[in-house]
C-alpha cells in the first residue's frame, strides 16, 4: 500500500491542500481578492485538492492492489523438479 501510486498522489495533493488553505487564511490581502473578484481562491483550491486527496486515499483502502497468484504447477513439473510433496 505504501508504494501504490495512488497513495503518493493522495499524499502530495493533501500536502498542497494544507499549504493552500493555510496560505488562504494567513495571507489574504485586499489586492489579491480584487484580482479574483472577491473570492479567496487559495482556500477553495485547497479544499478541492483536499477532497481529491481524500478520494485517492479512499480508493486505496476500498480497492487495494492484490498481487496475482503464481500459476499452479502440474504433476509433470513437480516430477521434473524432484518435488515429492504432491505424491
TrEMBL record:
Superkingdom field: Bacteria
Region (Disordered) spans which residues?
68-87
* Comp. bias intervals (Basic and acidic residues): 72-87
- UniProt KW Transmembrane keyword: yes
What residue intervals traverse the membrane? 7-27, 39-62
Entry keywords, A to Z: Membrane, Transmembrane, Transmembrane helix
Protein name in UniProt:
Uncharacterized protein
- The species this protein belongs to is Nocardia puris
Species lineage: Bacteria, Bacillati, Actinomycetota, Actinomycetes, Mycobacteriales
Amino acid at each position: 500500500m505504501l508504494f501504490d501510486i495512488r497513495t503518493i498522489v493522495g499524499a502530495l495533493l493533501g500536502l498542497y491542500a494544507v499549504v493552500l488553505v493555510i496560505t488562504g487564511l494567513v495571507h489574504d490581502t485586499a489586492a489579491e481578492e480584487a484580482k479574483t473578484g472577491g473570492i479567496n481562491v487559495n482556500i477553495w483550491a485547497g479544499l478541492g485538492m483536499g477532497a481529491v486527496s481524500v478520494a485517492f486515499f479512499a480508493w486505496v483502502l476500498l480497492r487495494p492492489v492484490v498481487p496475482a497468484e503464481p500459476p499452479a504447477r502440474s504433476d509433470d513439473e513437480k516430477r521434473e523438479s524432484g518435488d515429492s510433496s504432491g505424491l
